[in-house]
Design a protein that fits this description.
The chain is an alpha+beta fold. 39% of the residues lie in helices and 20% in strands. It binds histidyl-adenosine monophosphate.
């Protein structure tokens, strides 16, 4: 019988890779905490309508990429393609936006039916930060400082490039859309198929086109910056000023418009050249209208970002560090009495916080030591009839052929501590 394979674009994270994932996730949790962001846990499945209304019906995500199905009651549900919409939904449902401010973060799998390639998967992981209740550019800058700190903590080299832009208010975008359409109509015959379609339904997205001929046409296209309303221009200038104050280099990218409809004013992306075509490791912006658009009574200013963990882990992993998740002590026991005694030692060491692996079943000394070696343990604890009778244990420092000592059993915890501090790399 043939074996069942995983769904295309949905990856297993195997034990040898989970160490780097845990490291990255730990850094994220600690960093969110340092900026007073609090965790929110959200369902993986929402009503389809939530994403259609927030991300936008004519975006690629909603039009082509969602995993949508009818549940047993015939209701249309979707696996979440992102976390912002759920965050707003939860905030509205639980009254979090009533005269309150909130800094929230989440981490988990998202689902988009895209064509899989390096850095682009159908189940992928995002860590997101969303700030509700603050209208000013200081919140936008704080989000950038937070993400920049994550790059530093993870020792990313080089640091990804920060690209920023402003989409202004809805009048700005309407004015700009008209100008852009007027301009592009002159070249309609030369546009690629996708862009021709977008010209009808979502012309701003043409600015994202990777097609070289379309890009050439775009070089002389109108810029959204030239259409900005006065408040948005001030907001953007202040945002740029704060980034300079924070010493964070950035590039203004006039073509950065983002693929989700809810943004206004600030948008940004952190882009690396080290991951091939899928270079955006983190992206976000301001979405002051979304809470009200999803049924909120008042406008609640908001801004946030999501970073792609799959991409971030690849960047950290490719820095050459190894993330061993081996054990501290491996227990080798020969004979029935020794095996019975070994439980006691293993549990005592675990009581003191050490990571302990025991050989299970029966095996010759040589065989057990081979396993100890493979486990990556720093020290192995050897226990035979002699040790049991004398109430001693033998400790062997792995990979140091000549270091093997026999000690009183009651000194075990202290001695293991000393050996680990000396020989753990
Ligand atoms: P997004 O740009 O769609 O924004 O996704 C954010 C990040 O998720 C991307 O920059 C990328 O690193 C990662 N990502 C997206 N799709 C995939 C994929 N198929 N495979 C691997 N990684 C992927 C959002 O999702 C917004 N909710 C961000 C946001 C939060 N804006 C405001 N708050």
């Amino acid at each position: 019988m043939s074996t069942v394979q995983a769904v295309r674009g949905m990856n297993d994270i195997l034990p040898q890779a989970s160490g780097v994932w845990q490291h990255v996730e730990h850094v994220l949790r600690v960093t969110f905490d340092r900026y007073a962001y609090r965790e929110i846990r959200l369902p993986l499945i929402e009503k389809t309508e939530l994403f259609a209304r927030s991300i936008g019906e004519v975006t690629d995500i909603v039009a082509k990429e969602m995993y949508t199905f009818a549940d047993r009651n015939g209701e249309s549900l979707s696996l979440r393609p992102e976390g912002t919409a759920s965050c707003v939904r939860a905030g509205l449902e639980h009254g979090l936006f009533h005269n309150q401010t909130h800094r929230l973060w989440y981490l988990g799998p998202m689902f988009r039916h895209e064509r899989p390639q390096r850095g682009r998967y159908r189940q992928f992981y995002q860590a997101g930060a969303e700030a509700f209740g603050w209208p000013g550019p200081d919140t936008d800058a704080e989000l950038i400082a937070l993400s920049a700190r994550i790059w530093r903590e993870l020792d990313l080299q080089p640091i990804p490039n920060l690209e920023i832009n402003s989409l202004g208010d809805s009048d700005t975008r309407q004015r700009f859309r008209q100008k852009l359409v007027d301009y592009l109509r002159r070249y309609e015959g030369d546009l690629d198929h996708d862009s021709k379609h977008r010209l009808q339904v979502n012309p701003l997205r043409i600015l994202d086109s990777k097609n070289p001929d379309t890009q050439k046409i775009l070089t002389a296209a109108p810029k959204i910056r030239d259409c900005l309303d006065r408040e948005s221009r001030t907001h953007f200038d202040q945002f740029c000023g704060l980034l300079t104050l924070l010493n964070i280099p950035f590039t203004v990218n006039d073509r950065l418009v983002r693929g989700l409809d809810y943004y206004n004013r600030t948008v940004f992306e952190w882009v690396t050249t080290k991951l091939g075509a899928q270079g955006a490791v983190c992206a976000g912006g301001r979405y002051d209208g979304l809470v009200q658009h999803l049924g909120g009574k008042k406008q609640v200013p908001a801004a946030g970002f999501a970073l792609g963990l799959d991409r971030l882990v690849e960047l950290v992993g490719s820095e050459g560090a190894t993330w061993a998740n081996g054990v501290d002590v491996y227990i080798v026991a020969l004979g029935e009495a020794a095996r019975a005694k070994s439980w006691d030692y293993a549990e005592t060491l675990r009581d003191h916080g050490y990571r302990v692996e025991s050989f299970c079943g029966e095996g010759a000394m040589k065989n057990q030591l081979k396993r100890a070696d493979k486990s990556g343990a720093v020290v192995s604890l050897l226990l035979g009839e002699d040790e049991v009778c004398a109430n001693t244990v033998t400790l062997k420092v792995m990979r140091q052929r000549d270091i093997q000592i026999t000690i009183d059993a009651e000194d075990l915890v202290d001695k293991v501590g000393i050996l680990l501090s000396e020989y753990r790399v």
